[in-house]
Amino acid sequence: MWKRPSLDTKFHIDYDWWKTNGKDIRVAVRGQLCLDCQTRFPDHRNSESVDWVDPDTAEVIRTDALLQTLRNDCASKPGFIGKNNSIVTNIFRVFLLNANLPLTPDELHGQMPWVGTDAILRTLASGAVFMGLRPDYEAN
Asked: Which residues of 81-110 are buried (b: 16+ CB within 10 A; e: fewer)?
């Protein structure tokens, strides 16, 4: 059931949106890599899964090499989430970094303090879906 998103609505990357629209999210993830890392991955297909050790639990997790590179290398570079990016790009990157845990516009504002919560909500609730960013009705 659809309801108008509000400041209390949690959003996430809807992976089904990517499949339904015939798009490959791995292409978009590769596009978020810094230029140095993009050269390490000439395309989104020739990357393999890697073992990653969770620093908190020491659990070994099989994960996507593109996402691990983004989280471990690119995210620490200045401006990865910054004023020079579009709101949509910054929000997409926040969700890629936080394992797609649903967040409200206020929680996203905490990651992008230069953007007001109203602007974040307007962007996410405009009716058009950008990069699969949609309300997570299961979390709401």
From this structure: beeebebebbbbbbbbbeeeebbbbebbbe
Tell me the backbone φ, ψ of residue 79, rounded to 5 degrees.
Answer: 80, 5
What pLDDT sits at residue 96?
A: 96
The tokens for 46 are 């020739």
Give pTM, 2 decimals: 0.87
Distance from chain centroid for Cα 110? 15
Evaluate whether 20 touches 13 at the Cβ level (below 8 Å): no
Backbone φ and ψ for 109, nearest 5 degrees, come out as: -60, -35
- Bridge partner list, 17: none
In this structure, are residues 139 and 102 in contact, taking their beta carbons and an 8 Å threshold? Answer: yes
Identify whether the C-beta of residue 130 lies closer than 8 Å to the C-beta of residue 28. no
Residues of the chain with pLDDT under 50: none
CA distances in angstroms from 135 to 10, 17, 25, 130, listed in the order given: 6, 12, 18, 12
